[in-house]
Amino acid sequence: MRIINEVMLDYCDVLLKPKRSTMESRKDVELVRTFSFYHSPKKWTGVPIMTANMASCGTFSTAIVLAKHKIITTFHKYYSIEEYKEFFLTFKDPDYVSYTLGIRDRDVEQLKLMIKEKLIDNFSFVTIDVPNGYLERFLDTIKYVRSLLPKHIIIAGNVVSNEMAEEIILNGADIVKIGIGPGSACTTRKMTGVGYPQLSAVIECADAAHGISNPQGECGLIIADGGQVHPSCIAKAFCGGADFNMCGSLFSGFEESGGETVEMNGKLYKEYYGSSSNKAMLDNYGQKDAHRASEGRYTLIPHKGSMENYISDLFGSLRSTGTYIGARKLKEFSKRATFIRVNRQLNESNAKYDADDKK
């Protein structure tokens, strides 16, 4: 047994210190970035935010909206070959979608079919997703997928420690997903007791990944995956060194999101559930294996309307962060940021009286 006594932090434990700025407007803050990668020869340009590979947000309808804003949609694992064929008849933005697979044999076999049918050429990104990235088979899968797809940008996770972030990059991934249990639809921490405060995980893993570089000087990258309750959490993740942010609940509940729309007491709600929830396992596999416990939550969240309005608010929030900390570019957030540990972030005394100012 070992106890780590260092203070570890979540997004709710800190605020950002404001700093002097010469900017005149939020419009002066550039959110688009260009990345090169450790393994892939590709370059990518866009806003480094992506949906989680969940049925509630990693959908075709979401991709159509987000691609217009240079945001990536990471598709859930359950689309069929035929569904992909139909979708890519009209969708032509490979830089803003990611294919997703797990480490099961059937996932790898479907990837091979995607390659055979040349459907994988419609993706710049491929995501290898498991809840527990500490399995030896996970690293073996990364190496195998890299051998099949030497030019694709490979994302792999999830882990929360610097040594595993390094291992994942060295075994073939370009980007590592960081986060175990921080998401609002995840109950892993409740069911298993396993996890790591998300901001500290991001800071430590970013430092490790960025310390690995290839002969051309391209380093490993990370994604802060989960735990973003507000747009400010996305900003804090970027300030902590994250190269990308992956969000589930923040892109769920919209008209364009996945999940059924449900009416209760005259109000509309959308389904939102974790990929390891009972509902996800029953919907996608037809059963829940006897040896598995649900580690996901099923919820109904108030219908949020159009996703377009939210994207405008999200970008405005990030640009505002930049003006407060004196960062003209998203790339500068981590260099300009100073975190302040706090006991209280928000004054919520009037929160119960909130009205919808969008109406």
What is shown here, in short?
With 359 residues, this protein is of the alpha/beta class. The chain has helices spanning 60-67, 81-87, 105-116, 136-148, 162-170, 188-192, 198-210, 231-239, 278-285, 307-325, 333-336; strands at 14-16, 33-36, 43-46, 49-51, 73-74, 97-101, 125-129, 153-159, 175-178, 221-225, 244-247, 261-264, 267-273, 298-302, 339-341.
Number of domains: 1
CATH topology: TIM Barrel
| Class from helix and strand fractions | alpha/beta
- Tell the overall outline: globular
Strand content: 15-25%
Q: Characterize the quaternary organization of these chains.
A: single chain
Tell me the Rg in angstroms: 20 Å
* Residue share in helix: 25-40%
